[in-house]
Amino acid sequence: TYWLIYPLFVLACAKQTAPTGGPKDTIPPVLISSKPFNQQTNYNASSLELTFNERLLLNNPKEQIIITPNVGNKFEAEAKKNTVTIKFDSPFDPNTTYSINLRDAVQDIIEKNPVENLKLAFSTGDYIDSLMIQGLVYDLLKSTETKDATIALFQSDTFNIFKHKPIYFTKSDTKGKFQLTNLKPGNYYIYAFDDKNKNLIVESKSESYGYLVKTIQLNKDTSNINIPTIRLDTRPLKLTSARPTGTYFNIKTSKNLDY
Q: How far apart are the C-alpha atoms of 80 and 57, rounded to whole Å?
């Protein structure tokens, strides 16, 4: 029987298994250099170049990358090896401070660890606007913090949050906290909303929102700005259909009725 057992023993010894490898990589990519460099003034190129210490991939950059003043989706981002390039469709405005927040757009290629808290500010003029507004967004009825809410600023009193996109905006973190940076002095209206369709316009039918009635007179850094949000359908009541059904007459309206 030994001649039967011996080949099985040899095969068992020759069986290969996948290497267990080392500890999981939890270290996010680190920025090595950028064009422009942070706080650079008089920048006149139409692209940005960010170089990191490891190979990268991009995660939904047009949703994740926040650029203010708002340029919409008028840019293209690509990652090659350890460099991310962002090219813009049109030139930057003159004498303007821009802020770039990568959020979770840039990740390492192995474990997909996102770059942490990387913001870059530069100016096309001679100076960098540096004022800041920070605060909290919360649900008014639930008394809970609102994560990933859009917080937006506008200056004109003719601005309509149901029709127009903001110039300055950011997102709240997991604890509902937000920070708007590199702002110029002035009077600002501020509001927050749950931008479900990601169009930067409040949809009262499906999105919670809230705002402060008074303007923020920004001449120094401002904190403790708390914005309550609530779901309130402001669309005008309209009759959408009316028809008989048997002994009943069915009427449908654009929103629910209280009777």
A: 8
Q: Which of 9-18, 25-34, 216-225 has the lowest mean pLDDT?
A: 9-18
Query: Are 206 and 196 a contacting pair, CB within 8 Å?
Result: yes
In this structure, what token pair is assigned to residue 239? 């009759």
Q: What is the enclosing helix (H) or strand (E) of 64?
A: helix 61-64
Neighbours of 226 (CB within 10 A): 12
pLDDT of the residue at 235: 63
Q: What is the pTM of this model?
A: 0.78
Which residues, including other chains, have CB under 8 Å from residue 130's CB and lie 6 or more apart? 181, 182
Contact 178, 136 (CB under 8 A): yes
| Residue 179 to residue 173: CA distance in whole angstroms | 9
Ordered alpha helix ranges (H), 70-150: none
pLDDT higher than 70, residue 136 = yes
Q: Convert the pLDDT of each residue in 72-116 to its tens digit.
A: 888 999 999 999 999 999 999 999 999 999 999 999 999 999 998
Please, which residues have CB within 8 angstroms of residue 111's CB and are 6 or more apart in sequence?
Answer: 24, 25, 26
**Which tokens in the block code for residue 29?**
């990519």
**Cα–Cα dist 244/237, whole Å:** 21
The first and second tokens of residue 201, run together, are 């316009």
Q: Which helix (H) or strand (E) holds 210?
A: strand 209-211
CA distance 172 to 196: 14
